[in-house]
Design goal:
The complex is a heterodimer of chains A (404) and B (128).
Chain A (H helix, E strand, L loop, with lengths): L11 E12 L6 H15 L9 E4 L6 H8 L2 H5 L8 E4 L6 H14 L6 E8 L5 H8 L16 H16 L3 H15 L14 H6 L2 E3 L2 E2 L8 E10 H7 L2 E12 L15 H12 L8 E4 L4 H10 L8 H6 L16 H5 L5 H15 L3 H4 L6 E6 L6 E11 L5
Parallel strand pairs in A: 2-3, 2-4, 9-10
Antiparallel strand pairs in A: 1-7, 1-8, 4-7, 5-6, 8-11, 10-11
Chain B lengths: L5 H10 L3 E5 L5 E2 L14 E5 L3 E10 L13 E8 L4 E6 L15 E4 L11 E4 L1
Parallel strand pairs in B: 6-8
Antiparallel strand pairs in B: 1-2, 1-3, 4-5, 4-7, 5-6, 7-8
The chains are: A alpha/beta (404), B mainly beta (128).
């Protein structure tokens, strides 16, 4: 099916982004981070706070109390939008929340129910007690009757996927480690990345201790604090203030399972189904993408995504990372903010940060060090829970010569 | 009246048996157990004994970072098993005779280990 919104005045447009550095910032208040990135994104969109009529919240995972603040519209009151905002709601599908929130915002804009939508996210995963977070992640997305009694953890979920991917593709430990090294090269160019100051080598990765075979400690994502925001409006509104914005050329998804024990092929997941749906809608193919930003909590999660989306050959993802295909200066820039593995895993925000980076690159605002030249089309891939879904948004820059 | 799905499954594991759900209407095997048949939405669901034989789709050894209550189990191995019955599940893998899991590999044949799970609600597997 072709994109029904293409060419419509009510087609959604990304017009502003905001972000603060990821890492460990125990003294940075949760609400303060939310407000800071919200205001930054609104100003980046050349709007005033009072222009926002709908607030959509990406969930936080570090604290049920703070998450309750998101659910019950504290952000609206903090921004002074109480009495003005039409709606405030949190939408949760784990790591793919930003993809589903984007679709929701686009639908509200297309149906005339929202004019200017603020999406905002913050998490303090890096400052939360690690043992509590391990326990939480040993429950989320894991059926309590059937799988929790085994002692399954989130690293084990990533390891089960990695083991199967390595068996199916014949990828070596060195090739898998090279994915982490490539992401670190990108992170070194991103002032907001958790690991912007530390180089990484294959030897260092494979020399770190085994956590969950075949995953070493440095192949597991580091929990981080972080915050991001973006603003969406209609194309007709975008035209009045901007000479460029980002549209959604295509969108597709596939919910492949809930529990890891029920996934039919751990080296495939739902990417091909989701990608085919999205590319059909966009009318362009993976070979026309200028960048890809695909969820990367573990190296194999990323290579499986790239392969399923047709961005490289099946079973070749690991080898192509080792060959430098996806690093700065390579054929296809991938996860140019450093990804979850090197920019930091900010809970649900890891996917949001990839989305914000995709929009940033398409708007040409990534800065000299990592801006991809002539970046017009981006492939965004998100996934939540135990990689239960594969969510694809195909984003495209629109340029508009303003009449003056 | 909807009944707990786990009681029958757990009781079988305590007896040293692996049971899976079967739809009396369409005859299909079901795992994990469901409140309605995922194939025909039928509600007449019963238990059937699994052959216990299957193929190891993937596995891992948890070496550090166990959830609370599992620390004393470390290291332990988890595997996704595709049973010959046409259904799949996550279980634990017994260590091999050398005391580790080096002899395990994806796609190897495994079988349910019929030693009672001592009330822990875990399906254990070993090399077939």
């Amino acid at each position: 099916m072709t994109n029904p919104m293409a060419g419509s005045a009510l087609e959604a447009a990304f017009v502003g982004i905001g972000e603060i550095p990821s890492g460990r910032y125990p003294h940075r208040p949760f609400m303060g981070a939310l407000v800071e990135v919200a205001v930054a994104a609104i100003h980046d969109a050349q709007l005033e706070v009072s222009d926002i009529d709908t607030v959509l919240l990406i969930p936080c995972l570090h604290s049920p109390d703070d998450q309750a603040d998101l659910i019950f519209s504290r952000v609206v009151e903090e921004l002074g939008l109480h009495g003005r905002a039409k709606a405030s709601a949190m939408l949760h599908s784990g790591g793919s929340s930003s993809d589903n929130i984007t679709r929701t915002a686009a639908g509200l804009i297309a149906s005339g129910q929202a004019k200017n939508v603020l999406v905002v996210q913050a998490d303090k995963w890096g400052s939360a007690p690690v043992a509590d977070m391990v326990d939480m992640l040993s429950g989320y997305g894991i059926p309590r009757e059937w799988e929790r009694p085994t002692g399954l953890t989130f690293n084990a979920v990533g390891a089960l996927i990695t083991q199967r991917y390595m068996a199916s593709s014949g990828s070596t430990p060195e090739e898998m480690a090279s994915v982490c090294v490539a992401l670190r090269q990108w992170a070194r160019l991103n002032p907001n990345a958790m690991y912007k100051d530390k180089d990484l080598t294959v030897e260092k990765v494979l020399g770190s201790r085994l956590v969950c075979d075949p995953l070493h400690a440095m192949e597991c994502p580091m929990l981080a604090d972080g915050a991001t925001a973006f603003v969406m409006t209609s194309t007709e509104n975008a035209r009045t203030k901007h000479d460029r914005w980002v549209r959604i050329a295509g969108s597709g998804g596939c919910v492949s399972h809930y529990s890891i024990g029920q996934e039919n092929d751990l080296a495939v997941l739902g990417w091909k189904v989701a990608g085919d749906r999205a590319f059909e809608q966009a009318g362009w193919g993976p070979q026309e993408a200028d960048i890809a930003q695909v969820y990367d909590s573990y190296a194999a999660v990323l290579t499986i995504g790239l392969e399923g989306l047709g961005l490289c050959k099946l079973h070749e993802g690991g080898r192509l990372f080792a060959a430098g295909e996806f690093t700065p200066g390579g054929r296809l820039p991938v996860n140019t903010n450093g990804g979850l593995l090197s920019a930091g895993h900010t809970g649900v925000g890891g996917g949001t940060a990839l989305l914000v980076e995709c929009v940033r690159q398409l708007l040409g605002r990534a800065g000299d060090a990592r801006q991809v030249p002539n970046c017009r089309r981006g492939v965004l891939g998100g996934t939540g829970g135990t990689y239960m879904d594969s969510q694809v948004l195909l984003l495209e820059r629109v340029e508009h010569a303003r009449n003056r | 009246m909807t009944q707990s799905l786990s009681d029958g499954y757990y009781a079988a594991l305590e007896r040293g048996e692996l049971v899976i759900q079967r739809c009396e209407r369409c005859g299909k095997n079901i795992m994990y157990p469901r409140y309605a048949c995922p194939f025909c939405a039928g509600s007449e669901l019963g238990w059937t004994r699994s052959s216990g034989l299957g193929t190891l789709h993937s596995f891992t050894v948890q070496r550090v970072g166990a959830p609370t209550g599992f620390e004393a189990d470390l290291p332990y191995a988890l595997g996704v098993v595709k049973l010959d019955d046409g259904v799949q599940l996550l279980g634990r893998l017994r260590p091999d005779p050398a005391g580790g899991w080096d002899s395990y590999s994806c796609d190897m044949r495994v079988q349910f280990d019929a030693v009672s799970d001592e009330g822990r609600h875990i399906a254990w597997f070993r090399a077939a």
